[in-house]
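User: For my dataset I need records formatted as: sequence, then structure tokens, nothing else. Please produce one.
Assistant:
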Amino acid sequence: MEKVKSLALFFMLCGVVSPMNDEGRALMEMKASFSNVANMLLDWDDVHNSDFCSWRGVLCDNVSLSVVSLNLSNLNLGGEISPALGDLRSLQSIDLQGNNLGGQIPDELGNCASLAYLDFSTNCLFGDIPFSISKLKQLEFLNLKNNQLTGPIPATLTQIPNLKTLDLAKNQLTGEIPRLLYWNEVLQYLGLRGNMLTGTLSPDMCQLTGLWYFDVRGNNLTGTIPDNIGNCTSYEILDVSYNQITGVIPYNIGFLQVATLSLQGNRLTGRIPEVIGLMQALAVLDLSDNELVGPIPPILGNLSFIFSPSGKLRNLKNNQLTGPIPATLTQIPNLKTLFVAYVSAVTLQKPANCGLRGNMLTGTLSPDMCQLTGLWYFDVRGNNLTGTIPDNIGNCTSYEILDVSYNQITGVIPYNIGFLQVATLSLQGNRLTGRIPEVIGLMQALAVLDLSDNELVGPIPPILGNLSFTGKLYLHGNKLTGPIPPELGKLEQLFELNLANNHLVGPIPANISSCAALNQFNVHGNFLNGSIPIGFRNLGSLTYLNLSSNSFKGKIPSELGHIINLDTLDLSGNSFSGPIPLTLGDLEHLLILYVIINT
């Protein structure tokens, strides 16, 4: 009798702790398939805590205690997704985005019949999209973007009746977009950018009457834009850029109600339809990198949202547009940015805030350029401008960026330039002569100074060491003489210093090593001598060091092995002696090492 009582008590005590059910075991199998779990899933422990409903990322139904939600996003998990996932039969939501999960998506996922939300984005998943996903009849949200998935888009995805969001962007998917997909009346978001999809834009794309986001950017689609494109009246964002679409932009496109229209990077021909100027909802328009011809329609000036403070006529560059820039564009009070670069032969009537780089503009820089009292960005880089920099250039007090590089501008840099308040001054690639004006050292707002590839002579002004905000200083490709001023060591923000291909002499100032932010240092092709400053070991941010083709001598300091981020070291063409320091072998990031032609 006592034995029976003992057994009864034993079973009663055992009943206090419920054994793990199938879902608990499934979660443990999933944990076993992950790597890098570290402390992320510390409470997933069936020995010390069998209450899996309390585990991190797990949410259970209050009544059935079945797992209904699993959120393990952004935990840096590696490994694979276990087929045991299919044992979570009541699962309604799963979010594994932002990890490093590899392997294939398990077919067993199709057993989660209640699943409505699935996000496996931004992992390393590969292989095909399993057909079993089409069994998830309750699925509304499917996000598999930013993986390495291959194969076609399964046509069976069209059998998911409630699917509202389908994002397969940035994978390696091939084949055509399933035509039946266009007949999903509930689909609202279709993201397919950055794959290798082929085929054409089907006229059926306008059957997606609930769709607001259509993005096939960066695929291999061919053919033309469907003539009935204007029937896609629900679309708010239409991006078919960077494909191989040909033909003209159909007139019907003017009936769209989109806020964003991106057609850039195709092979579209013909003129810009004037009807685009009637698309009053348009906030972003990008027709760049095509083969469009003819004038810019003045009616584009009617696009009130594009020219609002938040809108953008993103660009029309890289076409073959001709004629003037319409006054309707240059007179818009809210216009902040207008890119017409790399067009064929535009002429400027009344400039607004414009970028005109890479055209074939001729003539000179007019003294009237400083009449643009509201202008902050002036870019005429890469044209055929001649003449000199206007003597009144310092009157352009509103300018923040001034780029006149890669033209044929001659003469000296005017003293008046020192009155500018610019953050970027780019004069490189011209035929400027004379000395660098010392007054440039007083331009306290200057962050980028590029005077490279000119014919400047004389010494580097020591006063440039006062440019406390300067991060990039490019003086290479001139005829500068004298030593490197020690004052440059005061530039605490200096990120890149390029003095290559001049006639500089003397040693590298030791206090250059005080430029703690220095990432690139290039003095190639001068007449510098002496030894490498030992203080360079303290330049922890330095990745590129080029001392080649000078007259440096002595031993290569072993301290160079302490520049931990160095990936390029060029000491060739000098007179260094002795062995190569073994410490250079400790540079884990070093990719390029040149020490040839030393003694």
